[in-house]
Amino acid sequence: MKRLFALLLLLGLASAQSALSLRFGYGEALGLTFGAGAENRLRENLSGRLLLELAPAAPGLFASGELLFKPDLGRYDPTLQGLLPYLGGGLGGVLAFEGPSTLGVSLTGGLEALLEPTTGLFLEGSYVYGFGDWPKTWRLAFGANFR
Hints:
With 147 residues, the protein is mostly beta strands. The protein has one helix at 2-14, and strands at 19-27, 31-41, 46-55, 60-69, 83-96, 102-116, 119-130, 137-146.
């Protein structure tokens, strides 16, 4: 537990100039999950994200590092101001304490709606296509981003 706390603390400190997210989710091999993530804007429409979620039903952790294409639709149509759809992928996996773990290519899609410039709510879906014989898994998540 101390290692997990230290990892979350380092993740928060490393991303002081980006968005931190609180996440709740449900996944096929994970059950209900709770976690945190850090997102950093790399370019105008490109963001990098690291996340870690506790999965007590597995029991284990879901971890992912992703590159997301995340345009602000308000730049193209003023009536869509604050809507940020995103699509991307990277590496993700389930680190199970008991049972099978998996590591593979993670594909993610979702929508974030900004309530104000510093706070947004999101809903997303992810699929991890496991390498080799490792199991494949999906998950849904929702939460809030704080910039």
